[in-house]
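Pair request: fold both.
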Amino acid sequence: MNRLLLNKIILILSTLSALLGMGFLFWILTTLSIRGLTSMHFSIFVKDLVDGGIRNLLVGQFTMALIATAIGVPLGMMAGIWLREYSNQNKLASVIRNLSDVMMSAPSIVIGVFVYALFVSPVNHYSGWAGSVALAIMMIPIIISTTDNMLSLVPKELREAGIALGGSKHKIIMQIVIKAAKVGITTGILLAFARIIGETAPLLFTSANNAYMTMNMNDQFPSLTVSIYNLANYPDSQSRDLAWAASFILTMIVLFINLIGRYLTRDKG
């Protein structure tokens, strides 16, 4: 009887906790949608921040995220391939996996401060490159973990079949193993991209912001997330309305990327 009562109590508490969490999430999304949609108009997509739009912010945010992806994906994938295919599961591999797990849970502001000390402080100047490096550092451990885990799911028999056909190790990895795990790896890359596209803290310390359209990565670079943070603290209602609209657009971008990731893995569970 005591076990049944305890089970019911835990079930009720778990259900209430889930409903409470979903309630807050629904509240946030509803408020964001209402305030964002009412503040949105077409002109914000064709004007820069200096004129009350977000065109340069979207371009800047995606530019830094894409450069970070170009840096982080090759490094992360190569590290993940080494861990699974070349390390023979030695002590170094265990250390790298643990460090990767720690990095995935590290606060983003810590990474921002680290890159600030390394790339910004010595030259006393913010830059888009520093912002991209900070985002890449956040992305790399996610790619390492995803690549490592996805390659571990590839059946050993596929590797043995490649060896039986006389294939070299790197050809077996590139032409058989990677292809077999490409959906999972691609999904991990998309989820990592979705995370960095919405980051603010690292960019506050590295790229700062720019109200004008520019592609000069050596200078302060436009950032949608940093602008949302700044605009929300301005006293005028026009700036706050623009912050709501930008927040809604950013949320939809992240949601869309996550839905693509879910779509790719819909039949892989």
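--- second member of the pair ---
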Amino acid sequence: MESVTNFSDEGSFSGDVVRIDEGKLRGHVDQVVRASVEETLNGLLEAEADQLCNAKRYERTPDRVDTRAGSYERQLHTKAGEVTLKVPRLRTLAFETQIIERYQRRESSVEEALVEMYLAGVSVRRVEDIT
């Protein structure tokens, strides 16, 4: 955002004009939304791992069922864009999340949109450009 000040010939102040670069603004908003979606999904994955282990990360309790073994990253295509998920690993239990299905790479709404575009007769090249 840039502010431009206009002065008349007499040197008096005539007002401010604000110019907004819509492309930069849209890009920034998209980035904020994508980061928010990514943070929320990663938080849900961590909470689910805590529930499976019966303890939070690094917490030592007698009720603890399993311990963490790090995490691995995977990509997920969402309406907000591509997000990076950090999927927790457990030492003995299999971590199968209820948030996303195993091997799922796209959110179901993205897949539905692709099918709708195909049925509407949108060309394959145009679909590739959109995705």
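Observation on the second member. Residues 65 and 119 are 49 Å apart (CA to CA).
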